[in-house]
Amino acid sequence: xxxLKPFLFAATTTILLTxxxxxxxxxxxxxxxxxxxxxxxxxxxxxxxxxxxxxxxxKTDTIPGMSVxxxxxxxxxxxxxxxxxxxxxxxxxxxEHEDLKNVLWTNxxxxxNNGIDDDKNGYVDDVYGWNFLGDIVxxxxxxxxxIKRYEADFEGKNIADITEEQxxxxxxxxxxxxxxxxxxxxxxxxxxxxxxxxxQVTVSHDAIVKKIGKEDYSAEDLAAxxxxxxxxxxxxAILSQMLSYGGTIPEFKDRxxxxxxxxxxxxxxxxxxDTDFRGVLNDDPYDINDTDYGNxxxxxPDPKKEDARHGTHVAGIxxxxxxxxxxxxxxxxxxxIMTLRAVPDGDEYDKDVALAIRYAADNGAKVINTSFGKAYxxxxxxxxxxxxxxAKKDVLIVNAAGNDANDLDVVVSYPxxxxxxxxxxxxxxxxxxxxxxxxxxxxVATFSNYGAxxxxxxxxxxxxxxxxxxxxxEYLQGTSMASPNVAGVAAMVRSYYPKLSAKQVKQVLMDSxxxxxxxxxxGGDELNTQAFSAISKSGKxxxxxxxxxxxSKL
Length: 554
Known about the structure:
The chain has 554 residues and is an alpha/beta fold. It is built from 14 helices and 17 strands. The chain has helices at 47-50, 58-61, 68-74, 142-154, 167-212, 219-223, 230-243, 249-269, 309-319, 350-362, 380-392, 479-496, 502-511, 544-552, and strands at residues 17-19, 22-24, 84-90, 129-131, 335-341, 367-370, 396-400, 418-420, 423-424, 429-435, 457-460, 464-468, 472-476, 514-515, 519-522, 525-531, 540-541. A seven-stranded parallel sheet has the order 4-5-3-6-7-10-11, sandwiched between helices. Helix 3 (68-74) packs across helix 14 (544-552), helix 4 crosses helix 5 (167-212) and helix 5 crosses helix 7 (230-243). It is globular and about 80 Å long.
């Protein structure tokens, strides 16, 4: 991402901004620094601390957190904040969750459930936001949609048969077909392997349970079987190998079954050539002017709200109600979460993303979190236009870098803010990679994308504890979790320093982070080590404590 000029501060200069009728003065505290001496050891993380490791302080805890607890203890009691609306464009949010129901944005200009567009914004009864997916849960990947859309035009043809006007589409179609063949074979192969393993383990397990009379047995129990038959020996060999991976056989069966369901679901949704998922919306996804679709059911159609798991987790990271002695505390206080459902189990449509960004900008959001991404895009210009529209409305977009262990300076991922390589379309879009809780060479998440130009900053994204549907809490991980951590920090800066523009907040986040001089493993490849400072634009990790201090000096 294109470099912005760094902010420079004269030590003897005091800059005063007026906010909420009072004078805001620079915070009189030193910026936190990272030195090898201060972080040369890594403390063992206990379970209680693991649930909030992203809030730790690197110097105090030797864990690369965001110094959230330190900021709340030392800085925030002396500050006065205003409400900030953060839009979460995701899979939906459980708006009845015990830790989220009191921090939700509601549209005060809309009368609930009267069937009228009271505020005349084009969305009827949009009390908590909008559901651009209607009752859709599953969806194709983008390259599958490309094949389905252009197969009748291009199947059986080569480049010589294609008109000049359609050559770029044909190239995209051919690339999509190659991607489909590669990905489908891999997913189908994994499904068959997991299915076969589950079948073998189930047969062997049932036979051994019948023989020794208990479900939960050890490798020693298997070795103690007297005069095993040939079938017993086969079963003992299979089960002993499974036990060597840790846990019990019933637990191992559950993991295998989870794998079967995961790969089966991907085949059913992501790669389905014969299913028109979008048909239930009565919408043309390739007409950006056709906006009369969706509904106000922002947690989606599933009564168990499983489809809203991802979005609920993201929302909790940002703003789960603090200090209520329930569940967990989000990064930010003084926040209202706007719910925009636009991300299915599959690839999102560019149209839905673009309209969701515009909805957020039009309805008062100051931060938008986009924890999703894809490798192909048919209408990136719609999203780029929406990003520029949000910039005009002074909205900061915090974007997940993606989980493919790729260098984004080489491999393109959408959404992004580059039409021409190396040139940003706006200054309100910040892309976030994921950190592990182990300081040192393993501190970059094995799955995280990176890039000296196209990733701006890193934040915690491994084993993040947060809200999930029906008043539950889980660990999830991904750059999807790293992005809302930064969105929470951005919301805090915008709450306490509301006169700062989206551009300034982005630069504060990047300039105030902690630098890391050590080399780290990138892309999960131990043979690929790079200086941490070289795998993002800032070369830093986000830090709330420093961000508030630096923002105060503007």
